[in-house]
Amino acid sequence: MRRRTLLSLGGAAVLPVPLSGAAAAGGRKRWIHTWTAMPQLTEPHNLPPAPFTGESAVLVDTTLRQTVHVTVGGSRVRIRFSNAFGGAALPLTAAAVARPVGGQAGVPAIVPGSSRPLTFGGRRSVTVPVGAQIVSDPVPLPAGRGENLTVTVYLATGQATLNLTSHPGSRTTSYLVGGDQHAAPDLPGAVGVAHWYLLSGVEVESDAPALAVVGDSLTDGRGSTTDGNDRWPDQLFARGARAAVLNQAAGGNRVLNDGLGPSVLARLDRDVLATSGVDRMLLFEGVNDIGTAPATVADQKAVTDDLLVAYEQIVLRAHAADLRVYGATITPFGGNTGYDDPGGLREASRTAVNAAVRRRGLFDGVADFDAAVRDPAVPRQLLPAYDTGDHLHLNPAGYRAIAQAVPLRWLN
User: Are strands 7-9 and 12-14 parallel, antiparallel or unpaired?
Assistant: First the structure.
């Protein structure tokens, strides 16, 4: 790898890479993402409950209401729907965006009079082809910084497949009810589920930069509070970040190979390079690659070497698009039933990867999440105060510690 001179700013290594065209615009407003959810193929146990999933179709004659937590604000919004993994065309009969009652996440009621219809090329209904996405026309509904918005969609005929695009790890309650109630102020009798379906992004007009956070369940928020918006990217933005913070993570995700959703190497273009407004990214992944590789000397050496090459590839591809790329060290999993092995081979891999990330200048800056949440007395384990109990995932306090470990200058 070509040698590069590093500048040291407050302990984090930073490469003087050029700003992207979006960041260099200098105050020019353009459409950027303010919220994202990584599209995935819905597993059978995460499909909508009966009667909203039938033998060969989903969401027939169904209203689906969901709330999202935006980051940067704007005077107009656009909503993106994805059919990335759909097994058939996705017919959206009607859709709307509104404000949730009390500004809360995960509630079925909206503020009366706040609902705005969504159109697509001027039409109220649209069909999204297999593998595609659709972006709504701009809607004059101001979105405030850190505000919750409600998106409601009605599908008259449903989708004629059981292959449904979703984001199962929403940590936010969505609601399903029969019939067309997309503009109704409340949905009495609706069924609540902790998944997002069909939604993939919200855009606003802004001159702010945007950071895409690429990760697994630790970034997706396992262990955070349902409807609490206290995942670590949420808490990072709440520190006063100027940039939009976009959560492009999914539980079980891996860097090298597909798992729950495409690997980082496979989804980098879709989830980062082609995401409007993104001019920087932060990669916090690798624990699932190490933890699912066999606990043998040969297999762990291979996954360690392959991860470091993959990190370099991600940086090369992102730099080619003028994106800054920040990395994070892998947090401890000592004591976890699935990943910690008696011989400590996976821990040795984690330690080796972290050492290389800290010293080799792979990234434009490094956030030491390992140091932020490990137990000083037993460094291979999480600090008990941050541990959900499975010795891998963090509670909201642990996610706060991770958010505090990210230099705010990366988000300005």
Answer: antiparallel
Cβ neighbour number for residue 121 with a 10 Å cutoff = 9
Give me the chain's average pLDDT, please: 94
Q: Please report the pLDDT score of residue 164 as a whole number.
A: 98
Cα separation, 161 vs 83, in Å, equals 11
Strands 116-117 and 174-178, bridge-based pairing: unpaired
Using the structure block, give the residue that is written with the tokens 């589920």.
193
3-state secondary structure of 9: strand
**Strands (DSSP E) along 182-305, which ranges?**
191-193, 196-197, 199-206, 210-215, 244-249, 278-284
**DSSP per residue, 172-191:** S-EEEEESS-TT-S--TTPE
Pick from 102, 201, 90: nearest CA to 155: 90
Reported as a single tens digit per residue, the pLDDT across 322-346 is 999 999 999 999 999 999 999 999 9
Tens of pLDDT along 108-162? 999 999 999 999 999 999 999 999 999 999 999 999 999 999 999 999 999 999 9
Residue 186 near residue 212, CB atoms below 8 Å: no
Is residue 14 pLDDT above 60, yes or no?
A: no
* Coil vs helix vs strand at 118: coil
Q: What angle do CA 233, 128, 143 make, to 5 degrees?
A: 40
Contact 98, 117 (CB under 8 A): no
Tens-digit pLDDT profile for residues 90-115: 999 999 999 999 999 999 999 999 99
Nearest residue to 153 (alpha-carbon basis) of 170, 172, 128, 132? 128
Written as six digits, the tokens of 342 are 């008696």
The model's confidence at residue 26, banded by pLDDT at 50, 70 and 90, is: low
- Helix H segments across 71-172? none
**What CA–CA distance (Å, rounded) separates 354 from 358?**
6
Instruction: Look at the block and give the residue holding tokens 């997002």.
Output: 196
